[in-house]
Amino acid sequence: MTRRRRIYEGKAKVLFEGPEPGTLIQYFKDDASAFNNQKKGTISGKGVLNNRISEYLMSKLMEIGVPTHFMKRLNMREQLVHEVEIIPIEVVVRNIAAGSFSERFGVPEGTPLPRSIVEYYYKSEELGDPMISEEHITAFGWATPQDLDDMMALSLRVNDYLSGLFLGIGLKLIDFRLEFGRLYNEHGEMRIILADEISPDNCRLWDVKTNERLDKDRFRRDLGDVAQAYHEVARRLGILPEAQQAEIVDTTRAASTS
User: Fold this and answer.
1) pLDDT digits (tens, 9 = 90+) for 137-175
2) CA 223, CA 212: separation in Å to the nearest integer?
């Protein structure tokens, strides 16, 4: 097998040089982390499931005109994606109170919000991914006001579509995190597109009837059956048959560090 040049490695994925200029290969790992990397573990088969789930959701979004970096899935763990200039901002869209939002504002988890709330976080593991405002973003030059307008419009469109899609399979989209990048064409023209992934790693998904959590909160909170939860999301999306080949067994091993 040809040795590929590693471009970047994050907590859940590795990016390798792609076969053509302007492309990358995105590899999904089984590694899991939470609380700014304070808790680490392995969820057997997670990378396979997230690869397939993200492919499905990105493809559906592209069908309604949302531009993404996704090009095609290559195998069980890899995707071919456009190389983009990542904007160091995480956009979080919240529909129902949960997680840190509930802690910050004293709102019980599961409380529907008056409207969808969009928050921005600076991508910096060293700083703990702090919450930031539009003023911070534009003052430090992380994104322009037009970039922010595009990111906001795309985030709300993604939220509207995915909320309906998940509701159709008996899941509530509690909140989710998106990342965006700048894609340049041969003429030097730039547009903002959706990057990274969409999966139970960065979406909170609760069962409509039971409020059972089918996302990474099962890992964060030591609820168990983490792989089975991801497996269930894939099953409901209708992409289980291939996922079954991955030998999805919950062998989560978590180790907290101080």
Assistant:
1) 999 999 999 999 999 999 999 999 999 999 999 999 999
2) 10
Residues 33-63 have pLDDT tens digits of: 877 667 788 888 999 999 999 999 999 999 9
Complete domains list, the chain, with CATH: 6-83+223-256 (3.30.200.20), 85-207 (3.30.470.20)
Q: In what order do the strands lie in the sheet with 6-9?
A: 6-9, 13-17, 23-28, 78-82, 70-73
Beta-carbon contacts of residue 236 (< 8 Å; ≥ 6 apart): 169, 170, 171
**Environment class of residue 221 by beta-carbon count within 10 Å: exposed (0-12), middle (13-18) or buried (19+)?**
exposed
Give the residue among 60, 89, 238 at the shortest CA–CA distance from 151.
89
- b/e for 2-25, b at 16 or more Cβ within 10 A? eeeeeeeeeebbbbbebeeeeebb
Whole-angstrom distance, CA of residue 176 vs CA of residue 19: 31
